[in-house]
Recover the amino acids of this structure.
């Protein structure tokens, strides 16, 4: 049996800039750079993280909350920044962060589940639960890395969609249908309700041996984002992902056990967090930022699962490497191999450590704990 449906008109672009955003993991790294960029362009931000690094502290004083009153009704209010301590592994903690943001800003039109970890020793496939330095336990029956990198983005996306739909009339209600009909008659579009912007990685395409759990979360996240592409045309909610290359952030710089895999003398190059933030700005508001010179056919159709035609669309995964931004196609993609800002030529050093670890007697605890 075949079912024929009529596709609704393409949604509008979101407001420029967004009114307010909630960003997890914005106490450092890429998400801090994006929060800084948003605030500088007029968007209020709630930073949901376990702690703020020293470089993030000035945001709270530069953009205090509540902001100073506007000098006149015609002057838009200044953006403000709030820090809310959040453990993204806890669903109640995520809900509280969202409630705090709504109480402060009234509504949100951008949510970024950005917090993540990069195969840390305390939750790594190569250090099974119950074997140091892993802090994952057999009794808990879960990997903390999966909770942070995958379960938290999924749950926060649910909360985001719930908020976007509750802030606007619900679908299939008379008021929602009337609003849609009126807007389509006026401008021929579905109204934009909100954006969820995920942090994927080039590891969502590649499969380095030393980081299997991290790879798995990023592959899964890409599939999750693409699965939600129909929300864009139907509800005006865009779910997207940015997939950075090798970024100069504390995930690398403060972990010498991983940093030794980067061979700068041999040709490896860092992508700066600010480059990724500019690409994220376009994904959030539909504008290409300062990285525009390196953009390659982003939104040209054929990859994100969001339908053909150019422009920004739900379900897109956009890769950011050194001086280059491109859409990752769902099928037949060339991948990031050999591209500047995507190589880690010393990964073999970490692979040797994996072989040494697995070769130790009693690895994993089956047949006797070591």
């Amino acid at each position: 049996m075949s079912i024929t449906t009529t596709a609704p008109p393409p949604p509008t672009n979101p407001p420029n800039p967004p009114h307010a955003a909630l960003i997890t993991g914005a106490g450092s790294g890429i998400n801090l750079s994006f929060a800084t960029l948003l605030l500088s362009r007029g968007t209020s931000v709630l930073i949901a993280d376990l702690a703020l690094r020293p470089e993030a502290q000035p945001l709270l004083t530069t953009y205090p909350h509540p902001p100073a009153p506007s000098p006149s009704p015609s002057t838009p209010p200044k953006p403000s920044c709030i820090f809310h301590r959040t453990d993204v592994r806890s669903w109640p903690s995520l809900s509280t962060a969202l409630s705090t943001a709504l109480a402060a800003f009234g509504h949100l039109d951008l949510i970024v589940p950005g917090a993540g970890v990069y195969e840390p020793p305390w939750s790594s496939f190569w250090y099974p639960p119950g074997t140091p330095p892993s802090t994952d336990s057999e009794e808990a029956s879960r990997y903390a890395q999966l909770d942070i990198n995958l379960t938290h983005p999924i749950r926060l996306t649910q909360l985001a969609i719930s908020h976007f739909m509750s802030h606007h009339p619900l679908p299939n209600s008379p008021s929602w249908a009337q609003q849609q009909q009126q807007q389509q008659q006026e401008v021929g579009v579905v109204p934009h309700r909100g954006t969820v912007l995920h942090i994927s990685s080039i590891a969502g395409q590649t499969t380095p041996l030393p980081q299997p759990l991290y790879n798995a979360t990023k592959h899964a996240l890409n599939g999750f984002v693409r699965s939600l592409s129909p929300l864009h045309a139907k509800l005006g909610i865009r779910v997207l992902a940015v997939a950075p290359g090798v970024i100069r952030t504390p995930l690398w710089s403060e972990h010498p056990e991983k940093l030794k895999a980067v061979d700068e003398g041999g040709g490896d190059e860092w992508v700066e967090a600010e480059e990724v933030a500019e690409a994220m700005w376009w994904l959030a508001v539909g504008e290409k930022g300062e990285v525009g010179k390196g953009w390659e056919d982003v939104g040209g159709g054929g990859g994100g699962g969001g339908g053909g035609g150019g422009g920004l669309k739900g379900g897109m995964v956009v890769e950011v490497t050194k001086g280059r931004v491109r859409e990752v196609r769902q099928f037949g993609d060339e991948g990031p191999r050999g591209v500047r800002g995507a190589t880690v030529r010393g990964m073999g050093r970490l692979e040797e450590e994996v072989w040494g670890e697995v070769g130790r007697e009693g690895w994993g605890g089956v047949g006797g704990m070591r």
The CA atoms of residues 1 and 315 lie 27 Å apart. The beta strands are 20-24, 44-49, 81-85, 110-112, 194-199, 237-244, 295-296, 317-321, 324-327. Confidence is low (pLDDT under 50) at residues 1-11, 170-177, 301-310. The two ends are 58 Å apart (CA to CA).
